[in-house]
Design a protein that fits this description.
The chain is built from 18 helices and no strands. By secondary structure, the chain is an all-alpha fold. Among the domains are: about 125-230, Serine Threonine Protein Phosphatase 5, Tetratricopeptide repeat, CATH 1.25.40.10; about 230-315, Serine Threonine Protein Phosphatase 5, Tetratricopeptide repeat (Alpha Horseshoe), CATH 1.25.40.
């Protein structure tokens, strides 16, 4: 019924505070196509409404319609050159298009992307997101085309002045990307010590996984679980146990806890927890238990190829 409520609210709210209030309902429901339709209709009547133009650009972006998003954000930049958020979104949409485009198209967009991000940073000295964007821009771009570790560190330093956690995480990212794992680990740990956010723990866990250090990843998740009490962390621990064949019994306990306390807000469907349990029991050579859990996974997601392949593997035990 909620989508219907959204549709009914559109004409009703247009007599309230603002006709655009109702669009939030579509965004909250991730119904970006409906938001696009409503905003397109609204802009025919009010073509100079900058908030509506921005929201339509956002709706396009969520649907990966980058050309349309770029056109909307460009109109915003032309209307207000001093708005940092407009420059940031314009550069971001161009960056996303460049990732999807062929090499020659992408190269032709580099200067515009950089200039948009720089203008956003200049207009708003406290804009954290654009400084993150510049860190990534300068690290991912080859040096011959303007990439620069020193420039990335410059913006990481600016981030550190605004938020020590963001600054440390940015430096961790830079050093990880530059294949300096000791320094990357140092700054990810500093981020955790500074604020202890779940995001910081996740960055360090992912780093350890990439470094093929599952024991450290598990220990980090254990610390995160003690601090944040998030059920999703039980799944992550079980996943690492299954993928790296370590601490299998702890993996079983974590996955069973995840299933017992599961709610949709945890993010990972129950089928995947059953799949990880089947992997662990396969490693333990317990064919009966492995089949039990893979069949539960397939009952929820019968078309998942990885589940089907796992079942075939189990049958060969």
């Amino acid at each position: 019924m909620r989508p219907l409520i959204c549709l009914l609210l559109v004409p009703l709210l247009s007599f309230g505070q603002t006709p655009l209030d109702s669009i939030n309902c579509f965004f909250n429901q991730k119904q970006f196509d409906k938001a696009e339709t409503q905003l397109t209709s609204y802009l025919k009547k009010y073509p100079k409404d900058l908030k509506a133009i921005e929201l339509l650009g956002d709706a396009y972006g969520h649907q990966e319609k980058w050309d349309q998003a770029i056109a909307n954000y460009k109109a915003l930049v032309e209307a207000d050159q001093k708005n940092a958020e407009y420059h940031y979104k314009y550069g971001g949409a161009m960056g996303m298009k460049a990732l999807k485009a062929n090499k020659f198209t992408a190269l032709g967009m580099i200067d515009d992307i950089r200039d948009s991000f720089r203008k956003a940073a200049e207009q708003d000295p406290n804009h954290i997101n654009v400084r993150w964007a510049l860190v990534e821009y300068y690290m991912k771009l080859p040096g011959i085309f303007g990439g620069s570790k020193n420039m990335a560190l410059k913006y990481a330093y600016q981030l550190e002045q605004l938020s020590k956690v963001d600054g440390y995480l940015a430096k961790g990212y830079i050093y990880e990307y530059d294949e300096e794992p000791e320094l990357a680990e140092k700054y990810y740990k500093l981020a955790i010590n500074q604020g202890g956010s779940l995001w910081s723990y996740d960055k360090l866990t992912t780093f350890y996984e990439k470094q093929k250090q599952p024991e450290k990843a598990l220990a980090n998740l254990e610390d995160a679980k003690e601090k944040h009490k998030r059920n999703a962390l039980h799944y992550q621990m079980g996943k690492i146990a299954a993928e790296y064949n370590i601490e299998l019994q702890k993996g079983v306990q974590c996955l069973q806890t995840y299933l017992k306390n599961y709610s949709p807000e945890d993010g990972v469907p129950k089928a995947w927890a059953h799949y990880r349990l089947s992997q662990i029991y396969t490693l333990k050579k317990n064919k009966e238990a492995a089949l039990k859990y893979i069949d539960l996974a397939l009952a929820e997601s019968p078309d998942m190829n990885s589940f089907k392949q796992e079942r075939q593997k189990i049958l060969k035990l």
